[in-house]
Amino acid sequence: MEFIKEFSTFLMQKEIIKFGDFTLASGKKSSYYVDLRLVPSYPHQFRTMVKKLQNNIAEDIGLDSFDSLVSVPTGGLIIASALAIEIIKPLIYVRSKPKDYGTTKSIEGQIHKGMRVVMIDDVATTGGSVVNAIKSLKDANITIEDAYVIVNRMEGADEALKELGVKLHSLANVMQITHALHEQKFIEDDILEKVRKQIEV
């Protein structure tokens, strides 16, 4: 829990998480916005986050249980690239749609039938982009059973991935972050309640 407390404080102080009224990419309304694309601008915290990810994967499933990391552009790909260098594992990524020139493929990188991969992304909301990527991987006979995100917004991604036989892991979920900020008096009771209601919808 020490990581969550320190990470939450960092997110708040650097305005990586903001509370208010926001419209997400999906068009959905939200009482908060978290933009992890800002984290690489702070190398020490970025490396701490990547090392935490490495440790969690090592403890949960073991670093030898998979052949390659996989991600989706762009937010998750930066994190996955840093992690791939740390653990010396290959990295592939899945485009949201196949490119319309050259090889016209949707999966970039060296792949082979039956390879085992672990998905890395930054934030999970409904799981949409990751779900599409997992389907592309399964179509290519690539085995995927685990996905790791930094922040789980707890708005359906767990269930969506479970239906595809993939377990979603996160370094922190939005309630843990919000509680940590509330305990440290960064946010008021009403904000905590708004976030809780948003998750329950």
Low-confidence residue ranges:
none
Number of strands: 8
The helix/strand order is HEEHEHEEEHEHEHH
What structural class should be given to the helix and strand makeup? alpha/beta
User: What is the second-level CATH architecture?
Assistant: 3-Layer(aba) Sandwich
Q: What sort of overall outline do the alpha carbons produce when their principal axes are compared?
A: globular
Task: Please tell me the total number of domains.
Answer: 1
What is the beta-strand fraction?
A: 15-25%
Strand order of the largest sheet: 5-4-3-6-7-8
* Overall radius of gyration: 17 Å
Indicate the mean pLDDT: 94
State the helical fraction: 40-55%
What's this entry about, in short?
The chain has helices at 2-13, 43-60, 75-87, 128-139, 157-162, 174-183, 189-200; strands at residues 17-23, 29-34, 68-71, 91-94, 107-108, 116-124, 143-152, 167-173.
Structure overview:
This protein is α/β, with parallel strands linked by helices and 201 residues long. It has one domain: 3-Layer(aba) Sandwich (Rossmann fold). Helix content is 41%, strand content 24%. Strands 5-4-3-6-7-8 form a six-stranded mixed sheet, sandwiched between helices. Strands 1-2 form a two-stranded antiparallel ribbon. Helix 1 (2-13) packs across helix 6. It starts with a helix and ends with a helix. The model has no long low-confidence stretch (mean pLDDT 94). Catalyzes the transfer of a ribosyl phosphate group from 5-phosphoribose 1-diphosphate to orotate, leading to the formation of orotidine monophosphate (OMP). This is Orotate phosphoribosyltransferase. It catalyses: orotidine 5'-phosphate + diphosphate = orotate + 5-phospho-alpha-D-ribose 1-diphosphate.
